[in-house]
Design goal:
By secondary structure, the chain is mostly helical. It has 5 helices and 2 strands; from the N terminus they run H-E-H-H-H-E-H. The chain is 72% helix and 5% strand.
């Protein structure tokens, strides 16, 4: 592992030495999103959508419960064929509920991504503008995979300022 890190560092230094015009910065997109006033609307829209899905699930669960109660109440009077039809109906409703739960998680993710897309585009435009103005050739997103970050080269605050968002610098 140390050899890999040493090799990566050596390659980085070699590339930097060959191209002195390279200037690399970082940006914390999650922090920028948290500071954007539009994020509250996004959160409310996703929450409202989630509640509508919960409402649909509740209706499905109520229908399932009614079907089970009907089966239990009339089980003695059912013929073998009627019993089989009711059991198949119950199993189908159970499968439908399971499928709905799986799809609901995916649908909420899609809705969240759909709501966040305009915000990411806004950040991207501002990032491009700030990076060019400050002479950065590359900007990396701050995350746990970055080993070392010199805050001097972080342009998060500049992007927020460019977007007209006032932040208390720490």
């Amino acid at each position: 592992m140390r050899i890999h890190i040493f090799l990566l560092l050596f390659i980085s230094l070699t590339v930097s030495a060959q191209n002195p015009a390279t200037k690399v910065g970082t940006i914390d997109i999650d922090y920028i999103l948290s500071q954007m006033p539009e994020i509250t609307t996004v959160q409310k829209n996703v929450e409202t959508y989630g509640k509508s899905l919960d409402s649909d699930l509740s209706k499905k669960l109520q229908a399932y419960q009614a079907l089970v109660e009907e089966y239990q109440a009339n089980d003695i009077t059912y013929t073998i064929n009627q019993r089989k039809v009711m059991q198949d109906s119950i199993f189908n409703v159970e499968a439908d509920i399971d499928q709905f739960r799986n799809n609901a998680t995916k649908l909420i993710t899609i809705k969240r991504d759909e709501e966040l897309t305009p915000l990411y585009e806004k950040i991207g435009k501002s990032l491009e503008k700030v990076a060019k103005a400050l002479g950065y050739t590359q900007v990396l997103e701050r995350n746990s995979s970055l080993v070392y970050i010199d805050n001097q080269f972080d342009i998060t605050i500049e992007v927020l300022k460019d977007m007209g968002i006032e932040v208390q610098e720490e």
